[in-house]
Amino acid sequence: MSRRIKHELTYDAPLAEVAAMLVDAAFREEVCERQHVLRQSVTVNPAGSGTEVVIDQVQAAEGIPSFAKKFVGDEINIVQKELWTDSERADVNVSIPGKPGDMRGTIRLEERDGRTTETVALEIKVGIPLIGGKIEGLVGDLLLKALRKENEVGRDYLSR
To answer: What range defines the domain where residue 13 resides?
Structure first.
């Protein structure tokens, strides 16, 4: 079983500015800080004709249901890898090292009338019998919360 998430983030900025922001390590660090992660490491490197962005972060497992806390512990290490093949598209893989499951999908940017929409589409899979679906739902909710925060930080970033 799996769960699909599709979320749109909008920015009052041209696609080129949004694309540059998404491969800026300082922006990704700021997003982590505003999400109150415990520790993070952000790397941005050329990858072929594109760019690879890796965000390795550790979040506190506070506020998550007990069934999930037993699974992840007191902290959750999340590794997000994005491979931007050009300024409009990236493949995404999000994993929790040592835990069964991941999120895979795409990010697409589209500009219309000077406004850019970032569409994040991911499939969440957790391979644990009986509670996998519950954890997928929880991960989906946490992902949407994180994307809303990223959108907020992005709008602030682009307004400077």
So the answer is: 3-159
Do 100 and 128 touch, CB atoms closer than 8 A? Answer: yes
The pLDDT tens digits for 26-69 are: 999 999 999 999 999 999 999 999 999 999 999 988 888 887 77
In whole angstroms, what is the distance from residue 38 CA to residue 74 CA? 11
Report residue 142's pLDDT band, with 50, 70 and 90 as the boundaries.
confident
Query: How many structural domains is the chain composed of?
Result: 1
Phi, psi of 28 (to 5 degrees): -65, -35
Q: What's the pTM value of the predicted model, to 2 decimals?
A: 0.93
Largest CA distance in the chain: 48
The CATH number linked to 88 is 3.30.530.20
Decide: helix, strand or coil at residue 10. strand
How far is Cα 55 from Cα 43, in angstroms, rounded to an integer? Answer: 7
Enter the DSSP assignment of 15. H
